[in-house]
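Q: What does the assembly look like in three dimensions?
Context provided by user:
Components: two
Sequences:
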Amino acid sequence: MTGNPLVDAFLPPGGNSTPPTNYRWGIVSGWDGNRCLVHLDGDFDSEDNPIIMPAAVQYVGSTPRTGDRVLVLIHHLRATILGVLSPSTSVIGPEGSTSESVLRLNRVVSGSQLAYEFQAGASEQANIMVKKDDQTHSIFRVGRDGQLGVQTYTVSGSGSATRPLPFATASGEVSVDLLSSGNYDTYSVTFPSGRFTKSPLVFVNTQGTVPRRTFGATGTSTSGFTLRTANYSGGNSGAQTVHWFAVQMEV
Amino acid sequence: MEDEDEEQTKIIEVVCATEGCSNAGIPIQLEVPESIRAVFCGVCGQRIIEYDEG
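A: Here is the predicted structure of the complete assembly.
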């Protein structure tokens, strides 16, 4: 035993004092002269303070900065930083893995253990999950194809209920001309280019206080729809502002 | 009242020219009734084409 709890942790059982070669991930906590100070993952003292160890830096393209994730070689009681992970990227689960990868954040709120997870789903989905006391309360799913879905907690406690979200929506308003009694008019409205992959459902509604006519949507495609308006009220109808809303629920 | 479902349609190509509109300059094909009065851009709400009444 060396007397250093960190080094002792690397020693094989049986009292062999030759420390093995080991690779560890850690976070740079600062610099002391030309020695980089590293907190290796999981190394805390008895009071939960991180154990900081100095490390040499070799074969690293850019100088490690405080907060960087680094790969550290432990060899003969010396630590050497071999690589720096891009500070904007953290990798959970190896490439080629076919099992679940999860990033979890824990927090106790009002006495309950909350867990917030980002999960690589089995159905080509990225899942954001909120768990309370080990029970899943809500899941927000982002499909590979862009389809969004939500599962929310049911008050009865029977698990979660699926509540899909629209794949694409669009809305707008157009101003149509006055329309005399006994006539109808036809307009076309384009959708935002490329917004829909299937013909959406279209809903229209006039904003006039006394519209004296009806409105409807027909001939809907992925490009647009036809707005029809008819006036059989017995009186003339003035110019109107019409609001429309189009929704495509699934990819 | 006329049966509007029987009305003839045609395919037209429209391009919004409103400055700053995200649909501006993008050709969009639409199937529209022969009696169409105007075509609106669904992004900026402006009339792209206006046909003579009747």
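Follow-up: Chain B touches chain A through 27 residues (CB under 8 Å).
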